[in-house]
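Q: For a teaching session next week I want to show students how multiple molecules come together into a single three-dimensional assembly. I've collected the sequence lines for a complex. Could you give me the predicted structure tokens for the whole thing so I can convert them for display?
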Amino acid sequence: MTEFDAATAAVQAALDAGARYADARVMHRRYESMSARNGEIEELAQDESIGLGVRALVGSSWGFHAVPDLSDAAARDAGRRAARTAAASARVPGPAVDLVPTGAATASWASPCTVDPLGVPLSSKGDLLVGATRTMAEHGADVAEGLYQVWDTAKWFVSSEGHRIDQRIRECGGGISATSIGDGETQRRSYPSYRGQYGTSGWELVDSLDLAAHAARIAEESRALLTAPLCPAGETDLILGGEQLALQIHESVGHAIELDRILGWEAAFAGTSWLDLAQLGSLRYGSDLMNVTIDPTIPGALGSFGYDDEGSPAVRRDAVREGRWVGVLAGRDSAAVAGLDYGGSVRADGWARLPMVRMTNVGLEPGPHTLEEIIAATDDGVLMDVNRSWSIDDKRLNFQFGCEIGWEVRKGRRGRMLRNPTYTGIGPLFWRSMDMLSSEVVAWGTPNCGKGQPGQIGHTGHPAAPARFRNVRVGVRA
Amino acid sequence: MTAPELDLAGQVVELVRRLAGPDAQAEAVVTRSDLALTRFANSFVHQNVAESTVGVRLRLHVDGRTAAGSGSLVTADGLRALVERTLAAARLCPPDPGWPGLSPPAPVAAGAAVDEATAYAEPDERAARVRAFVDAVGGLEAAGYCRTSYRSGAFANSAGHSAHGRTAEAAMDGIARTGGSDGVARRCADRLADLDGADLGARAAAKARAAAEPVELPPGRYEVVFEPAAVADLLQNLSWFGFNGKRYAERQSFAEPGRAQFDRSVTLVDDPLHGSGLPYDLEGTARRELTLVDAGVTRAVAHDRRSAAGVGASSTGHASPGGATFGPIPHNIRLLAPSVAGGAPDGGTVAGGGAPPATSVAGLAGVAGAVADADTAALVAGVRRGLLVSDLWYTRVLDPKSLVVTGLTRNGVWLVEDGAVTRAVRDLRFTESYPRALGPGAVLGLGRRAVRQPDRVDGVWWEAPPLRLASWNFTGGASG
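A: Of course. Below is the structure for the complete assembly, covering every listed component.
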């Protein structure tokens, strides 16, 4: 029995049990991670998981059931259970459910991969992390950490509308962090970001990071931060590095444009959105420099795929064009509720989880400047980079972020290092204050986006470049 | 009768012995799970999921090297593949001089009896509670979930130690929404039968109505009364970053055992068997009560075998997945109510829907419905000027050692003046050191009834009464 056979059996069983639509995903995921600490391997974990999840629509109610067994009997039982769960949902019914058309597809897709990350010898991968963390420890870090992660996912999708799609997506990435411990506080520096950089790519991505070359620098910076002056408190011009801006996009744009949040479907947990669908196409989200796309077609970016987990093909769309809000992240049912004609942003974290609206690659198009030009044009401000903490309200408006490191900017030059830099603001006001944007875009990968109940971890991408924001409140502290 | 999971765990250990020889050290954990969650929003069920899964975890130590593997395949071929790839990984790893060895044979007491009705709850039973919640909000919008979980598992290692157990849990978490304000009610229980959707819905609706038309207050330091949902966030962050034996060993924790770091009214106990739970940890160590703070004095941090060996201590039964990286973390902390700490008979825990109904305290404070129970009302009555806070949201750590955290209020904040709730307030952002806020002299009162709050994952919960603190540092208003 093939994976497609199992998925087909589950879908048919759901239909036989009363569903008017059903789809099923078989997923086979291999995961590997290794962490090192202070020059020694700390943990090597490998996981292999195979199973099937089936979704059934009975009337206007959904049900989902997942099993770790691809036998015909187990698949059919899962289909029947999904339909039975959907019938139970009808005790508390909602409005009629439609699905926007996606076109039945028979297709195969694979992400680009030059060097199979699971084929690289563990000893080589271990040597990389051990060497980098040893260097950090030798250069003053009290806690020197290194991490890589690899996901190799094969999936087979079948729907009652005729979809039959298989995909293989390989993702990997890694990074290093140095922590220095002082009296009453710690200081951390990371490269290239806290958990590292990730993409739908082979091991060539990790090779390109050249972790060892940055180990000594970040260790010394973490030590120096312990005695650096505090980031001043007040309003000033803020320059954000690209890594931090990627998280700013993730939290204050990506989540805000998720259609399930806008419709209230996440109200009790992840929250809603400040955006009102009545203003789609007209709302001023940011300055004219703000052009944000939803683009799962970017080769190598972490949020890329061929088809989403409802069978919709990857399509590039605008989310914000010249500062105006023009697009959302949607699924087939949420789009129908909103009166839109596209889905394409629905994914599930493994076979045991329900597909839901997730970010793909949500990021900025390049601006006209460079970081050095932005610094040179700034008379009095603070430059911050690499995220350390992040918090935002349930409507995605009021945020406060902390960065690992800051620098004074005076009269067009980068000055003293600053410790504990934080900034806070309100999303649209912040984005409207962006007056300089660099062309130096990197598609940062975020492998830890939490959403949903039961919880799901999403992998998202965020093209971002350094940018300047005017009159931002910085230096918030306890 | 032997548990089937114990047979499987034994097979894995035996397979390691056959493939790697008698000197190989191996431990295996097998867990079967049936998890179901009925989710509602806009007053209808929009997601309704169930999963039946099985997982096998293997950790082995061969020729001085350690590796771990896991998988969902429990066929003979699947188990053999798991053992072979984990052995291969171990052989390629560098030596592990910190290997703490296997848990020796020791008795592991059975956990609490499992409620079979919860373990095998049907979708209709969860939907019925959602129906009751939605009906009880009286025309407001409702959103949330009703969850049931069942786990059956076993542990075995090559030192001859084994353990097995079962656990079931139910939780319900919902909000009512007026269109401009939300109110929340949240409970975790061993039995689904103890969750009363109508009671929770009525509580959430009363809070939501009381939170309508909020005013914006200037940021600054305010005295606060935190309801149990907000206190749960304090316990979670103290647990992850403070009572974590690995962070303690690395001097990244504030914890200093033997020192009075908290107000003397604070007693914190990690008590995994207070509710239904598996009676052993990932290394087979028996889980048991651990006093972390006793009358304000920090007494202990949590350990697994590796972190314990590093500081010359013993495991406290806190080995968990990812623990080698994140460290051992208590997941079932109780902030003891004063009557419990003092042994008085009238204190206790509200694990299900057994708290007094919201209407019983109507009129005790100025804004009807803001204060959900007499316990909270008693704390509010002592506040000259401060804030009543239902819930905290999106809390993130700025510095782990001082445990400075930023986050926001959510699901209802009210101004308290001269012992009465006078008006609803818009959400505020705070930036505060949690240990400092709970420090000596900083706790002005605790309620007498603790309420168990669910976490995002079954088996993890936080239990606390409402809590009155002298000062909380609000650093931003709703407008920034």
